[in-house]
Specification:
alpha+beta, Alpha-D-Glucose-1,6-Bisphosphate, Chain A, domain 4, eight-stranded antiparallel beta sheet, 8 strands
């Protein structure tokens, strides 16, 4: 079972700058640290491409970039787990991440960009996301307004 989660933050920066902060390797590693220190992503960042969201121990999740419209919208469709650096098969469809969506929307108005994140969170991770996402978005704001 999943719960729809929504997070939002206003940032005094153009959405192009925030977009770069979100998806550039160096700053991605910084703002995602509240989820897992040392986390990173491997992808060519193109629509339809695979992406791996990884922790330093080689665990994580794999997904596809479902929709990409820079610098306005990025949508990930999560497919399954990665353990020990290997994508785990999901033949039975019981994986918690199977087909869960994670969407990033940036709307700019009068020099302020609203960053919205909508995601399907597995019920057992809801409190984790509710704690980590506000911290992560505060880091995006800090990096973007610098």
């Amino acid at each position: 079972m999943t719960t729809k989660l929504h997070f939002t933050i206003d940032i005094a920066a153009p959405r192009e700058k925030i977009w770069q902060i979100l998806w550039d390797d160096v700053t991605y590693r910084q703002w995602t640290s509240p989820f897992m220190e040392g986390s990173y992503a491997i992808s060519d960042w193109k629509e339809g491409s695979k992406i791996q969201f990884l922790a330093p121990d080689g665990g994580g999740i794999y997904s596809i970039i479902e929709r990409l419209n820079p610098p306005e919208y990025m949508s990930f469709k999560h497919l399954g787990e990665i353990k020990g650096g290997k994508e785990q098969p999901n033949e039975d469809g019981t994986n918690l991440w199977n087909n869960a969506m994670e969407n990033y929307t940036l709307k700019e108005h009068n020099g302020v960009t609203t960053l919205e994140v909508d995601l399907d969170g597995a019920n057992e991770y809801v409190s984790y996301f509710q704690g980590a996402f506000p911290k992560a978005l505060a880091l995006v704001k800090s990096l973007s307004e610098y």
